[in-house]
Design goal:
heterodimer, A: alpha+beta, three-stranded antiparallel beta sheet, B: 378 residues, 15 helices, binds iron/sulfur cluster
Chain lengths: 92, 378
């Protein structure tokens, strides 16, 4: 398996203590964690709505591409999860 | 004026009761004067509901020691239902393994356990009680129940040289975050400032210890928040990200405040949640509008290019040090009052705790101080 394939087969999950939810006052989805909040962009929220601890990154990409057929999303989704893992709120 | 932003952070001080006696406690020095009447469960639940409607997302449950409240689980359960991220800020004393579990069940998201030091002896002296072993037990119970855990160490002259040990202890207890918060001089800490303030040398060493720990990647999984003391800075902290901007605190008796120590500011009547809705308080009350925005500022802040960065610093610090709550925070080196801060640093350097014993936070001392200060002295 090459590295991209290995990455795609991983199943990302919110790290312990982090919560993803819709905040009406922010008009956005957010990540809540001890004493803090991160407001997500629209595209980040689309990805996170599919991140449920059972879907692999590959499945998430497929589901997104079904919803947004004109887009080429694989790299963006991989980068998103790599960034979130780096920041510590996603385990992959 | 445009509508204010949402109070993202709601801090509920459920009670002033606390079995500990930390000499840097941020509770008002005259807490014993308050009648001891606390909001009941239903009143707190109404506060939470209205706060949530205003857009509050983070809820801190603190005190005193919040675990003293028998209805804590009920309050947590309601907060959870409302969609808050709930943070319990506790000393661990009065807590039991059973209650950690029942709080988990109620939907509590996170627990912050405070320690007074990394050694039992010093911890117990500062806390004024034999509490260290129990804290260790409770920290373990917090982790065993799957909570993310913050360990908070308020640092000062007496414990700041323990930074290495503190980070080791936090690692052993598997803390997710450790907060090294240099004492801020409000409440009891202001009273004890001369004997709490670390020296510059101590701070430099502490910072080096933190950096070493980070650089050597001794425990990468643990995040360290290192809060430096503003007296040694030349710019003030952006206190509360601005008055009435993100933060709202409700005291045990229902008084709503824009920060921990605002109640001491003269000429401001702080509203009570028993008389007004949270929305009215946040949006319309004179108290919350008093230092909102920039119109209240005096020089040098008024025409300063940095005012959107630090909001002129802390109103309480300005008041406590200069007597004028609208003055530039004297920590700022552009303030004509900076010499007051420098004098405080110098005075602390020559004051030993033998010459000026630490005043511990307890009801007895609070009553004495209240009598000495006299009525209307806040
Ligand atoms: S700072 Fe110490 S005395 Fe004050 S409430 Fe917290 S544990 Fe109690
Ligand atoms: S003068 Fe006021 S606004 Fe300017 S840096 Fe100092 S405190 Fe901040």
């Amino acid at each position: 398996m090459n590295t991209t394939a290995a990455e795609l087969s991983k199943v990302p999950q919110l790290a312990n203590g982090f919560r993803f939810q819709w905040e009406p006052a922010q008009d956005s989805h957010v990540i809540l964690y001890p004493e803090g909040m991160k407001v997500l962009s629209g595209s980040a929220a689309e990805i996170m709505q599919l991140c449920d601890g059972t879907r692999s990154i590959e499945k998430i990409v497929a589901a997104l591409e079904e919803k947004f057929p004109e887009a080429e999303l694989q790299q963006d989704v991989l980068d998103f999860f790599a960034g979130a893992a780096q920041e510590g709120w996603i385990n992959v | 004026m445009s509508e204010p932003s949402a109070p993202l952070w709601l801090l509920a001080e459920l009670t002033y009761k606390c079995p500990l006696q930390c000499p840097y406690c941020s509770n008002p020095v005259d807490f014993a004067k308050s009648s001891g009447v606390e909001l009941d469960t239903d009143q707190w639940i109404r506060v939470l509901r209205e706060g949530r409607e205003l857009g509050a997302a983070q809820l801190g449950l603190s005190g005193g020691e919040p675990i003293v409240r028998k209805d804590l689980e009920l309050i947590v359960a309601e907060a959870h239902k409302l969609g808050y991220y709930t943070n319990l800020i506790t000393s661990g004393i009065g807590m039991s393994t059973d209650r950690v579990a029942s709080l988990k069940q109620a939907g509590l998201d996170h627990i912050q356990v405070s320690f007074q030091a990394s050694s039992s002896e010093l911890n117990n002296w500062i806390a004024g009680t034999d509490s260290f072993e129990h804290k260790i037990e409770m920290a373990k119970a917090v982790k065993a129940n799957g909570f993310p855990m913050v360990l908070c160490f308020v640092t000062h002259r007496e414990n700041i040289e323990q930074v290495d040990d503190i980070l080791q202890l936090a690692t052993r207890l598997d803390a997710d975050y450790v907060e090294l918060a240099t004492t801020q001089y409000y409440g009891w800490a202001f009273l004890n400032r001369d004997v709490l303030m670390p020296t510059r040398e101590q701070l430099t060493k502490a910072e080096a210890a933190v950096n070493r720990f980070r650089d050597e990647k001794i425990n990468d999984a643990m995040k360290i928040f290192y809060v430096i003391p503003d007296y040694y800075e030349d710019r003030p902290k952006p206190c509360m990200s601005g008055w009435g901007s993100l933060f709202m605190l409700v005291t045990p008796d229902g008084t709503a405040l824009p920060c921990h120590s605002a109640r001491q500011l003269p000429g401001i009547e702080f509203p009570n949640v028993k008389d007004m809705s949270m929305g009215e308080i946040w949006k319309r009350s004179d108290a919350f509008n008093k230092f909102r925005g920039f119109d209240w500022m005096q020089e040098p802040c008024r025409s300063c290019s940095e005012k959107e960065k630090d909001f002129g610093g802390c109103r309480c610090q300005a008041y406590m040090l200069t007597g004028n709550a609208a003055a530039t925070d004297p920590v700022c080196d552009k303030s004509p009052d900076r010499h007051i801060v420098d004098a405080a640093i110098e005075k602390s350097a020559v004051t030993t705790s033998a010459a000026k014993p630490m005043v511990f936070r307890n009801a007895k001392n609070s009553k004495i101080l209240n009598d000495r200060l006299g009525p209307g002295s806040r």
